[in-house]
Design goal:
single chain; 16 strands; twelve-stranded mixed sheet; 34% helix; alpha/beta; two-stranded antiparallel sheet
């Protein structure tokens, strides 16, 4: 009887699925070493190494990006492009060593305290100052490179890209900060910083050069134009972008023919815009966004956040009807998040009700229900204000939500101005959490109609709302 042949041993003989799972647990340096072992291991390593490409506004990063796209073998592994378009600082004169040490070194990492910089010798600081100066020069050359025709053609060479992100690169850094390396340490170690922080002794924080630049918006639409013109736009399933200026984004989008095509097959769209503090956005300022939303028939997750750093007036919010038409409906939409949006209340309910069959997650932050004027039987105008308390009842009765979050200021411009605050720790007994539980059919209604209240409750009631409730810091009414 012949003995069975021994089973081959080695990574090369593992099933592709198991080999891919193993590679998924390896660090980037290990993957780079593994790809040198054999052609099979090289292909599996490349699948993880080049799945996500991080692109910075720096000539070295952009040249590496272009080189990967030009390589027919490596380009087919790219699925996600992550554009970290932060600026180290405004492009200007190079700082002297003294100015760099006093004003720049340690910025962005709470490392300007003497203990952090005291761990470096003077010769080390000389090296970091030189690296910083070189980086600024590379950043300046990077600004020129984004005008290159190569960027216009980039997605024609990366046919399988399905995700584009414009936001800061965080957990994909080679050496991210961990929880035990917090900012409160007396002397934060260098290896706790991100890769760019270790190179420059500072972290980039700014997304804008100045108020006149449209760099981020320009690059975003250049990539969208590339996807449209290359015919690969149908592969795009997710777009995630933050820190766009709404007017600049719209103007750049107007220059792209058939811009809506970039959004037509998306499953996930997450966009965050800044609004002018002085000039409210008009309907024309969001016409490209509205057109894109109207054609994005396959959306499953939509996040639209509009941000501003001051001005509490409702004029600084985007009307819902600027963004979606009365008949707008995404048949597969399961998740919706809105920030700094206003409506008259009824159109918000109408919009949500149309998505009741599919919508399961709802996040609302800083929402205003604007008062409307209706003519009464005597022909006189009567101010009518929607109620957020009744809105919660609508959500409970008409929707099938399983996850909700309400945060920020909720204002009906009359008698309901609420401020919902995020609280740490146990939130079970807060009114905010009780509202969340009620809307998702997991708890009772936390507001009692005044007609059902006891004499003691009526005696303690302030008489301004027809509801009895227990207020706490998680959900407070502003009395103006």
């Amino acid at each position: 009887m012949t003995s069975p042949e021994p089973c081959p041993v080695g990574l090369d003989y593992l099933p592709p699925e198991l080999l891919s799972s193993i590679c998924g647990t390896l660090s980037r340096p290990d993957l780079k070493s593994l790809r040198l072992v054999s052609s099979k291991l090289s292909a599996c390593s490349n699948l993880h190494l080049f799945h996500t490409i991080n692109v910075r506004l720096h000539i070295t990063s952009l040249e590496r990006f272009f080189a990967i796209a030009d390589d027919e073998h490596l380009g087919r592994f790219v699925r996600e492009i992550w554009c970290d378009w932060r600026f180290v600082r405004d492009i200007g004169d190079q700082p002297s060593r003294k100015d760099w040490l006093e004003e720049i070194a340690g910025s962005g990492i709470s490392a300007s305290d003497p203990p952090f910089l005291s761990q470096f010798r003077e010769s080390d600081l000389d090296k970091y100052h030189l690296q910083y100066s070189d980086y600024i020069d590379g950043q300046r050359r990077g600004l020129d490179a984004i005008e290159s025709p190569l960027l216009e053609q980039i997605l024609s060479k990366l046919p399988y890209v399905n995700n584009i992100r414009f936001c800061s690169w965080k957990h994909y850094e080679d050496k991210p900060r961990t929880d035990d390396q917090s900012l409160s340490r007396p002397c934060r170690p260098l290896n706790s910083l991100t890769a760019i922080g270790q190179q420059l002794l500072m972290e980039p924080r700014s997304f804008f050069l100045d108020d006149d630049t449209s760099c981020r918006e320009q690059v975003f639409w250049t990539l969208m134009r590339s996807a449209i013109n290359s015919g690969h736009v149908s592969h795009l399933q997710s777009i995630h972008g933050t820190h766009f200026h709404v007017r600049k984004w719209n103007l750049e989008g107007l220059s792209v023919k058939n811009s809506y095509k970039a959004f037509r097959d998306l499953h996930e769209l997450h966009l965050e815009f800044s609004l002018d503090r002085l000039n409210p956005a008009s309907q024309e300022d969001v016409q490209v966004l509205a057109s894109a939303l109207g054609r994005a028939a396959e959306l499953r997750s939509l996040t639209l956040f509009f941000n501003i750093y001051s001005a509490r007036s409702a004029r600084r919010l985007l009307p819902l009807n600027f963004l979606v038409t009365h008949n707008q409906r995404w048949k597969n939409l399961t998740s919706l998040s809105l920030r700094r949006v206003c409506s008259d209340g009824s159109d918000m309910e109408h919009f949500l009700a149309k998505h009741s069959p599919s919508l399961r997650s709802l996040v609302l932050k800083r929402i205003t229900f604007r008062s409307t004027i209706l003519m009464n039987a005597n022909g006189q105008g009567e101010v009518v204000s929607a109620s957020f308390i009744k809105f919660f009842q609508f959500l409970n009765q008409a929707m099938h939500l399983t996850q909700v979050w309400f945060e920020g200021r909720f204002d009906n411009e009359h008698d309901e101005i609420w401020v919902a605050k995020r609280r740490s720790g146990d939130q079970c007994d807060t009114i905010q959490n009780k509202i969340h539980l009620f809307v998702t059919h997991r708890g009772p209604f936390p507001f009692k109609p005044l007609r059902d209240a006891s004499k003691e409750e009526i005696a303690a009631h302030d008489g301004t709302l027809p509801w009895i409730y227990v207020e706490d810091s998680s959900w407070q009414r502003v009395r103006e």
